[in-house]
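Write out this protein's structure.
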Amino acid sequence: MMKKNIQVDQGTMEATIDCSKNAIYVVKDGCLIMIEPPSSGYGEQTAIWLGGKVDRVECTEINKVY
C-alpha cells in the first residue's frame, strides 16, 4: 500500500485533489492522506475507525491468475 500526504492550506483548511486518479482519500486531524489502489489492480481496502477517527487502512491484494 502506498500512501501520500496531500498539501492542505492551513488558513482555509482546503486541499486540491486530482479527480482523474483512482484513490481513497482520508482526512485525519487536518491532514489529507491519499491511499493508492493495490498495485495488482485487484484487492480490498478497509478503513478501521477508533475513537471517531480512521486509525488504519487494512489492505488485501489479490493476484488474478489468467
